[in-house]
Amino acid sequence: MPRRIFVTGLGIITGIGKNLAETKDSLLNLRTGIGKILYLDTNLRDEIPVSEVKCSLDECFHLADIPVAEGFSRNTLLGIIAAKQAYKDIRLRGFHGQRTGLISSTTVGGMDRCELFYQDFLTNDSKNIYIDSYDCADSTEKIADILGINDYITTISTACSSSANAIQLGARMIRNGDLDIVVAGGTESLTKFHLNGFNALKILDKNLCKPFDEKRNGINLGEGAAYLVLESEESVTKSGRKVICELIGWGNSCEAFHQTASSPDGIGAYLAMKKAIDMSGLDVNDIDYINAHGTGTDNNDISEGRAIEKVFGTKIPPVSSTKPYTGHTTSAAGATEAIISILCLQEQVIWPNMNFSEPMKELNFVPVRELMTGVKVRNVMSNSFGFGGNDTSLIFSEYKP
Amino acid sequence: MAAFINGIGLISPQKTVETNDFLSEITEYDADFLKCIEPASYKPYIDPIQSRRMSRLIKIGIASAKICLREAECEMPDAIITGTGLGSVEDTERILGSIHLDQPFSNPTPFMQSTYNTISSQIAIQLKCHSYNSTYVHRSFSFESSLQDALLQVAERTAKDILAGGIDEMTNNHLEITRRPGHWKKGKANNLEMLKWDSPGAMAGEGAGYFLLSSERNEKSYACVKDVQTLYKPEGLDEISNRVTRMLSNSGLTLSDIDLVIMGVNGDNRYDHLYHQFAEVLFPSTPLAYYKHLCGEYYTSTGFALWAAANILKRKVFPLILQLNNSHRESIRNILIYNQYQNVNHSLILVTQ
To answer: Is A114 noted as a catalytic residue in this protein?
Structure first.
């Protein structure tokens, strides 16, 4: 039997909540985090809605519970906040010689400070402390230092599937016996860099996004960070920590189609879901909910929808995109939505695909319209697809001893 | 779990493409940084219509990946994994240069190419390869993480042929910016005089190295990657030396079985003592080599070191230009690569015959 991978910690901060309890409350009460830009200094503020974490930089330091200091990006602080939440219980229960790793992910890294100070970088020494914080590894190293993790650390960047791939790598390393505990996830702060980039690609909706709707018109970007603690069965036995759920399947595939567009038939999405299901040993009928990537772009939703039809045939389980709540948190989306899917297992609910009204002509299914409560949710699938066709699916399952 | 190197594509500041030469002809630089000697034309590797829109790093990446696959006679790898500390610096700079004006981007291409996973995904697009695809972006662990993922794939038996590489570029702008915190020499330097330098800062470089790692040996195999270890902020030489011993014993080896240690000595007098202590304590009479005078310092420079190790083992020659001491061994069968970046990211790669 391959080693089992248990989830024993969750940490999350997004536009809909600064911790797990607030996130759950917003989800249950259909509260979106998307609205007018309040914190990012951009002249697109009146034009494009986003889902920001409702905190200034100083408030982020406060939430991270570290002294205000130079050299910290918003990206790093969001990561520290979420990773600390996830790791808190691990610390409380102490260690028993387990090898612990941090696998983080981000796409724009410390760009939120770098884009502000770039002219200084070019002309003077006043912001030198931020020069080394612009890359993707800086947030990971600062998080590792604060959590005290040094057995293994690395950073993944596969655009919008980054943190799903971080979770996958963590699971693989535990299964192979390389590590016992892994904190895996990702962090992403909104920046002008990627807001303008997505805007130039003309894939941002100027109103609230409507995934899987015939009249969908693009993405609402979001920001946030989310981390899961993954643990081997042996480690859980030693520590006696409470198991939240089990990660039973994962699949990574590449569209190999276009740098920023998905293929019409969704080959990458199909293969990622198929691999994850095959690994889990489940029948497609055992999947009770799919948390779709569902960005709300013309392209993604056709591609993903067709891939779902191909995998599940006529027995498509409830599907929703929760991006109308959190916005698209890019690198953090995989871990954010993994946690939102895990909440379905914990609460026995299925989140609605908000803002949906008109079915897509191309698809034979419609997403979940209303919050479903009191439903049996045993296995959930979370999809994360990125630029470059980097597609990953994860399957979480209720814990059975 | 080990993997065999069955093909290599290396684009570096030395003449390493479209040649069979192995460091007998050396390129000397008196420059701010060491720049890749690119293929005379990218036509053999990339459709010219496509390559016109690609930035330099992406072309270098695709070309080195294709050279590697051709040498290995592998048409479709089972996984594509890239390590890059900085991704496309050129595209990122294009965006940053205009962002303070807070105007809409006129052209989305630099943004599309600025995401770090562009190289791995562009290689997949070129090959129409739907297999596992990932990108590691952790400073001087980037290439090592790619190798570790590849070895993990072999252990999981999910892939037979894995394309794994490391790639980074330097630009004039980025050099000037990263000179500010003191990473580089203050001005121009001669790369071949590295051992004479006694000043802070390294000489920057760049390069791309892709390796076809396979679970199976064939007649073309260069060498075998046995183990790859990374250490984050180790507490001192003790921790590093424990890791070396454990790593070797896992492969059934002892310190004396190592016939050559290739080290990341880079002429930065703040950190080079770490290498000298490492060698003195662990490998006092073992032949030692260095390589950064040939490719410069960059996050994925261990790709150059692995290329050198693989060629030493396959060709059974140890070029003079790499030699760091006067120790000699009749034959070289086991090589250990040791690199560190600012005493934060330390890595070990064990390569055997």
So the answer is: no
CATH classification of B3-214, choosing from 2.120.10.30, 3.20.20.10, 3.40.50.1970, 3.40.47.10? 3.40.47.10
Q: Could you tell me the residue range of the domain that residue A117 belongs to?
A: 5-239
DSSP letter at A204 equals: B
A92 has pLDDT over 80: no
Average pLDDT over chain A, rounded to an integer: 96
- Residue A385 in any domain: the answer is yes
> Which residue out of A136, A160, A209, A344 is catalytically annotated?
A160
C-alpha closest to that of A238 among A374, A84, A104, A90? A90
The domains of chain B are located at: 3-214, 224-352
pLDDT higher than threshold 80 for residue A328? yes
Per-residue pLDDT tens over the stretch A56-77: 999 999 999 999 999 999 999 9
pLDDT digits (tens, 9 = 90+) for B46-78: 999 999 989 999 999 999 999 999 999 999 999
* Predicted-assembly ipTM surpassing the 0.90 threshold: yes
Residues in chain B: 353
A62 as an active site residue: the answer is: no
Q: Once rounded to an integer, what is the mean pLDDT over residues A388-394?
A: 95
CATH number for B224-352 (one of 1.10.10.10, 3.50.50.60, 3.40.47.10, 3.40.50.150): it is 3.40.47.10
Calculate how close chain A gets to B323, using CA atoms only, in Å: 32
> Is the CB of B232 less than 8 angstroms away from the CB of A107?
no
How many CB atoms within 10 Å of residue A385? 32
**C-alpha distance from residue A186 to each of A12, A109, A118, A338, B120 (Å):** 10, 10, 24, 11, 20
Bridge-partner residues for B224, per DSSP?
Answer: B4, B352
Instruction: Please give the model's pTM, rounded to 2 decimal places.
Output: 0.98
Candidates A43, A152, A159; nearest CB to B117: A159
Domain stop point among A239, A267, A301: A239
Q: First-to-last CA distance in chain B?
A: 15
